[in-house]
Write a structure and sequence with these properties.
Layout lengths: L8 H4 L2 H10 L2 H17 L11 H17 L14 E7 L2 E7 L2 H4 L20 E8 L11 E6 L4 E7 L4 E6 L5
Antiparallel strand pairs: 1-2, 2-3, 3-4, 5-6
Helix pairs in contact: 3-4
Length: 178
């Protein structure tokens, strides 16, 4: 398989045909498309074909976002309050998911020793078993609401990871001494 070469579609067309196609395009549109694709490649992004913005508006938005990141000046700033007993967490595509320890008042069971929060000052929360999720607002969509949810996974969480593109959540169970 070492001799495999990817197909280059331009190689499949005759040079005369390529010149004819490019010659029929508006040079300004061609230049704008090229500029946009170079800007996408520079920041490691891909075009969203479902976005109905014009190419000109997409390029303006991309340049504006790149400038905001370089200067740390954003169009919007929100504060999300993280619970004190927050453990492992992950942030992906505007969704923040973290684990926290349940206090006895959270689950109505005063006798459950596995859900007590650790004393202040401990860096790691060994009792985190409730997942808290928050969908963060975005200036890229009309949806500006912060939506939150929580689920008790029923075991202590050692770590977690999410991938919103795959609708995937991985929760790693902490080993408990028996």
């Amino acid at each position: 398989m070492d001799d495999y070469l990817p197909i280059r579609y331009m190689d499949l067309l005759a040079t005369e045909l390529i010149v004819m196609i490019l010659g029929s395009l508006d040079p300004r549109d061609l230049l704008q498309n090229l500029t946009y694709n170079i800007a996408l490649a520079r920041v490691g992004a891909v075009d969203n074909p479902n976005n109905s913005l014009s190419l000109k508006d997409k390029l303006k938005r991309l340049e504006s976002q790149e400038k905001a990141w370089l200067n740390l000046t954003f169009a919007r700033r929100d504060t999300i309050h993280i619970p004190a007993r927050f453990g492992p967490f992950d942030l992906c595509s505007g969704v923040l998911v973290g684990a926290r320890a349940l206090a006895p008042e959270d689950n109505g069971d005063d006798a459950d020793a596995n859900v007590q929060p650790l004393p202040d000052g401990d860096e790691e929360n060994l009792n985190a078993r409730q997942l808290l999720g928050t969908t963060l607002p975005s200036v890229l969509s009309d949806d500006t609401d912060v939506r939150s949810w929580s689920r008790d996974v029923g075991f202590p969480v050692y770590g977690l990871g999410i991938d919103t593109q795959q609708n995937l959540a991985i929760v790693i169970q902490r080993r408990t001494s028996q």
